[in-house]
Amino acid sequence: MRTRWYISRRDQPSNVPVRSRNTIFLGLLVVVVLASVGLFAADVGSTTPDPVAFDETVPVGLTLEAEYALGDDVALPRAQVFYSQYQYVVGYYGVETFVEDRRGPDHEQRFGHSLAVYVTDYGGTGIELTDEGYPVTDRSPGWIEAEAAWYVVDSDARTPAGDTVVSFADRDEAAAFAQTHGGTLHAWDSLLEVPFESDDASIARERVDDRRDLADERVEAAAGATERPTSVVVGEDADTIQAAIDDAPANTTVVVPEGTYAETIEIDRPITLAGEGNATIRGDGNSTVITVTTDRAAILGLDIEGVGNKTRDAEELPVEMDDEAWDATFTKYYAGTDAGIGAYTAEGLLVEDVRIDTPASGIITYDSTDAVIRNVTVTGTDDPTEGLAGMLLYHSPVVVENSTVLGSRNGIYLYRSPTAVVRSNEIEGNKLGVHVMHTNDALIADNELRGQEHTGIYIMTGPVRNAVVGNTVRDTGYALTTGGSDTYIASNLLTDSDIGLLVGSTASIYEDNVIAGNDLGTEVFSLLPTNRVVGNDFVGNDAHADVRSGPLRVWSDGDTGNYWQGSATVADGDRADLSYAPTDAVDGRLHRTDGAPTLVRAPALRALGGLEGSVPGMRTGSIVDQAPTCEPNNPDLLERTEWADDAWTCYETTRTTP
């Protein structure tokens, strides 16, 4: 009888020790099974494990934002799967999510085969569909074995991710649902043959150029505001800036000559406010200095200071907010703070060549689609734990480019701002550099970040299809922290930090990055082994990688792997002829050990390496690259660091520049 232990998500261990080659060698013939509180056992040799509560699974298939926004009566279709090589139960939002994942070429290698699959049983629940197509029920659905269920495909039922499959234990109930809501019936075997569309990390990769083009279009559209004719000159045609704005016809320019103007103002019509020379607007220190409440406004060539540092009640803001929204309290607090510029429902806003000194936020946009912020400098406080954000962008698909943010708690903060583009900025000395929450399909590209107190680029709260490309992050706590799923991380330089890359995403692509000169190159805390990690270079890190918990991760794809300083061995073409495990006690020290290229070729280690490469269970909680490259994959990027000379090749036993 074989017994396998499964760990509920609620009781996940905070740290699982990595098994070294030495440990395996000494205990090769000993198998020890440890159990602790929160584990439950399944005798897979004679019985099928029982389903668990869904909140005890490791869930995939739905962003946190979508989950939070659902009503209590919505009961989305789900599946839960027990795998032969995976110690956690995986919970899938949508049976179709599991079916598509199951088709992946390396799915069985990562998880093993499925021991038990359960799906939602809508039988007897009084299922109906909302206007959005979401299933609502009178009572909570139960679970049924997948092979015994009947499935309705192509009905009107949906989840926030798209079309979904609805399952029933009883065929007649499934047919009745299809009669009412459309769709066709399938048994389990035929369902497995149905193709389902899904947006994965390759979509984020393919859309990088599209996002760049979209940003160019937004910039070009906003640029028209710089060509508006002058209608009012402050000091000549009006005594104050506010009076000039009030007098200006739509689609004209108000000119602010050189000087300092002690005002707080509101732009409530589509005009351009343009400074000449050293024109400064100084607020009263108690409020937002410039409030924008119109579409197609522009603010050009001004210095802004005297910003307040208060949070307003929602009733004081020039916009109505949804009190019933799941994030209403959070939004009111952050979007209600003072700023140099506060823009509310200001579609097509342009802010260009502006400098802001602020103790709170520099720019806040709320529900301001296609806003463009470029060539702007925001300077916060001396203490980056104070203040709020250099740029706080709420519900605003925007472009931020060629700007500088210094000394804020959050440098650039995106919140529920899909398709935003943040590119070619300099971000220094903040607590968090670029902070992305509940934002999908964004592009973070070609930014220079240095000296952040905590994290350079932080993607959190379960978003999907974001792309982080071509950024340089230096001298910070965590250079790049990724969350969510289907993320594309490519061509970034992560160097001279405490931790270069903190991997929390799933089903994501990490390729062509250089992780060099960090205390720890990469730390993995995501529990699902679904990321594709290839073509990266790990050089000069005290330790290249560590894993907090979870199963074996295979960081190679066929004959495509990564470059690891220290993995030098006999070459087989462009690849090393041995696998490499950066989490292994021996492998992980090779790049810091004299004579390592000779040591790694020792017959005992070569034999043990082959054994480990063929027995996945012997590397639980670790990383293995089965096709490490002989030379760095990204030499030009590596040359931008001080670690290029530390790269070894498979062909030499001394350190050499590739």
Automatic annotation (TrEMBL):
<dbReference type="InterPro" id="IPR008719">
    <property type="entry name" value="N2O_reductase_NosL"/>
</dbReference>
<feature type="domain" description="Periplasmic copper-binding protein NosD beta helix">
    <location>
        <begin position="397"/>
        <end position="565"/>
    </location>
</feature>
<dbReference type="InterPro" id="IPR006626">
    <property type="entry name" value="PbH1"/>
</dbReference>
<dbReference type="InterPro" id="IPR051550">
    <property type="entry name" value="SCF-Subunits/Alg-Epimerases"/>
</dbReference>
<protein>
    <submittedName>
        <fullName>Nitrous oxide reductase accessory protein NosL/NosD</fullName>
    </submittedName>
</protein>
<dbReference type="Pfam" id="PF05573">
    <property type="entry name" value="NosL"/>
</dbReference>
<dbReference type="GO" id="GO:0006511">
    <property type="term" value="P:ubiquitin-dependent protein catabolic process"/>
</dbReference>
<dbReference type="InterPro" id="IPR007742">
    <property type="entry name" value="NosD_dom"/>
</dbReference>
<keyword id="KW-0677">Repeat</keyword>
<dbReference type="InterPro" id="IPR012334">
    <property type="entry name" value="Pectin_lyas_fold"/>
</dbReference>
<dbReference type="InterPro" id="IPR011050">
    <property type="entry name" value="Pectin_lyase_fold/virulence"/>
</dbReference>
<dbReference type="Pfam" id="PF05048">
    <property type="entry name" value="NosD"/>
</dbReference>
